[in-house]
Amino acid sequence: MQPPLEKILLFRITHIENLALLAQYGSIPPPTHQLEGYKFIGDKDLTQRRRERKVPIDPGGKIHEYVAFYLGPCTPMLYQITRQGKVQPEEIIYLCVPFLEIEQLQLRYVFTDGHSHAHLTSWYNDKKDLDKLDWEVVCTSDWRNTEDDPDRKRRKQAEFLVKGEVPLSSVKYIVTHNQHIARQVEKMLNEFGLPSIKVYCNPKGGKFYRKFYF
Q1: Contact 156, 75 (CB under 8 A)
Q2: 33-40: long-range contacts (C-beta < 8 A, 24 or more apart)?
Q3: Which residues touch 45 (CB under 8 Å, ≥6 apart)?
Q4: Number of folded domains in the chain?
Q5: Residues 6+ apart with CB under 8 A from 17
Q6: Residue 211: exposed, middle, or buried by beta-carbon count in 10 A (0-12, 13-18, 19+)?
């Protein structure tokens, strides 16, 4: 079941060391404008392919020109990053942007009903089509394919792509792995004059978003 529009959050994971860079810059830039010193945690091969992957509907362009968010936490990307061991779970934070912030700022966006590189995936650019997503799978932490449903993993990776930069002021919540990191984040936000961003330590059992870390 789709959450109400006012409850839909967009999730972007990043290394905690990137928070100061983003705060200084004032926005989350797309990969076409990578900040100096930015600590990359994603899949380099996939990122390279996204440089050439075209967005098939308006506002068009390449995926690389968009800031990418997931529509649910506990994604295969997070699982892969932490399983590889190059980045510890506690080093990863969630930047959470309410969908309605994107609407109010009149930013251009597209979203998908699954992994953006899968042939089965459909693309949309109108909020009325948010109900086309499989929200049960998008919001779950158990997205493994099954014999009865071999497409769960693709649907879990539904993306929300915002063209251009996303103002950091649109980030209303940050989720951390533990209380120690939460205190670090709160201190950093105060130093950069961003105390209005609420910090949550590994919340569990929410109505729509029940788990954030594996």
Answers
A1: yes
A2: 33/165, 39/14, 39/15
A3: none
A4: 1
A5: 39, 91
A6: middle
Residue 211 is assigned to a structural domain of this protein: no
Alpha-carbon distance of 205 to 209, in angstroms, equals 7
Is there a domain that residue 213 lies in? no
Q: pLDDT digits over 156-185, tens only?
A: 999 999 999 999 999 999 999 999 999 999
Cα–Cα dist 148/169, whole Å:
43
What is the C-alpha radius of gyration for the chain, rounded to an integer number of angstroms? 16
In a domain, 208, yes or no: no
Domain containing 21: what range?
5-201
Condensed to tens digits (0 to 9), the pLDDT of residues 76-92 reads 999 999 998 889 999 99
The interaxial angle of helices 18-25 and 179-191, nearest 10 deg, is 20
- Give yes or no for a cis peptide into 89 (omega within 30° of 0): no
> Between the CA of residue 25 and those of 13, 110, 124, 208, what are the distances in Å?
17, 24, 30, 31
- Which amino acid would we find at residue 67? V
**Beta-carbon count within 10 A of 31 CB:** 18
> Could you tell me the two tokens for 94?
């969630």
